[in-house]
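Risk register update: the risk of archive-format incompatibility is retired. Evidence:
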Amino acid sequence: GAPVGSALCGSKDLIRRALRWRKMLGGGLRQSGLLAAAAHHALDHHVHRLADDHALAQRLAQGLADIDGLAVRSAQTNIVFVDVANGRGPDLLAHLARDGVLATGLIGLRFVTHLDVDAAGIDRAIASTRAFFAQGATATSTRPAGSAVY
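Archived output:
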C-alpha cells in the first residue's frame, strides 16, 4: 500500500549511504514527507496482508509457468518476473492491457500483486496470457519495446 513501492529504514549511516547511491545513480528528489506518511500508513494498516500478496504472486507464477513462450524468472515476494520468448513482450503487454491486466516490461515482464489485486484478477491475468499464446498473437503492438503499461 506504500506509493512508489518501498520505504527504507535503517541507521543514519545506512540512510546517508543510500542517499549518496541514489544521487550517483540519478535518483530524483520526491516529496519525501508525503511518501513517508503513506508508507507509515501502510506499515500500520497493511503489513498483515503481505502474506496474501505473496500467495497471489505464487498463484500467478504457477499459472504462467506452464505456458509455452514464457519463463518465470522470479517470484520471491509480491513481484513476478517473466521472460517472454521471441521478443513478443510488447505485444503481450498490449494484449494484457486490453484485457485490463496491468504489467510493465523492460527486460521481460513484471507483474506486481498488491492490495488492489485479488484471486479473480490473478485468474484473469493467467487466462489472458494463455489466450495470447493460444491465438498465435499475430497482432502487432504499437508500443515501443520496454514501455510500461499503466
